[in-house]
Description:
The radius of gyration is 19 Å and the shape is globular. The protein has an eight-stranded mixed beta barrel with strand order 1-2-4-5-6-7-8-9, surrounded by five helices. It contains seven helices and nine strands. About 30% of the residues lie in helices and about 20% in strands. The two termini are about 25 Å apart. The protein has one domain (about 30-225): Alpha-Beta Barrel (TIM Barrel). By secondary structure, the chain is an alpha/beta fold. The protein has helices spanning about 1-20, 45, 70-80, 95-105, 125-145, 155-160, 215-225, and strands at about 30-35, 55-60, 65, 80-90, 115-120, 150-155, 170-175, 190-200, 210-215.
Amino acid sequence: MKRQLILIGALAVLAACNEQTVRKDGFGVHGIDVSHYQKQVDWQLVAAQDVQFAFVKASEGQFMQDTIFCKNWDAMRAAGLLRGAYHFFRPGISAELQARNFLSIVDLQHGDLPPVLDVEVTDGYSTEHLAQGVKSWLAIVEDAYKVKPIVYSNQKFYNQHLAQRVDGYPVWIARYSEWRTPLMADGRTWHFWQYGNRGNLIGIKGNVDFNVFNGSLADLQNLTICRPGPLLDRMPEPVPPPTPPPAPSAKPGEPIAANP
């Protein structure tokens, strides 16, 4: 009997993971996030389906840059979407070099959303080492663009490794649930909620992540960069990487979708 209950529970979880993500009622501002995995996106069609904002992957680690970032970046603005770009953080790589990678490709302009740091893996390093690198990246990018970046993570990872360590920065939390909103261990209020990764929209082949903003469209517009002049007067000078800590025994992790 116990084995049957375990099997039924496992099937229920599997079925939930394969369910199509349904757009949430009760929120006035909807968005998506994409990377090269979505391949070709018709942003004009996307914008016509009650989508007000979108985030796109720009970079990862020291060298990786998303292959279709530039195409997406220009097309998002042309479609009238509030656009934002994110960097996937690798704890074992110098935060300064990772920040430079992001800064070298992302041309933020007046009206764009703040830059985003995606923090989902430890790659075997300690929480203290991770937090130090995250804070360094945030400080460098904030100094370059003169705006506080957004921190993205899934709820479980945030509560274990980032709670009370990124105070003052807007947060974007992934929690895949039909009705349970993100709940952070430090009691903070979320700004963006990624509530599912199996959404479907005309103009995108396959699944896409669905998000909502915690506020009105006017609130979201107030979060955007408001500075008509150049955002990046010059590229920051390269910073020599610090002496790396001993290599961890665990293998580098892969991006985690989210915490159900």
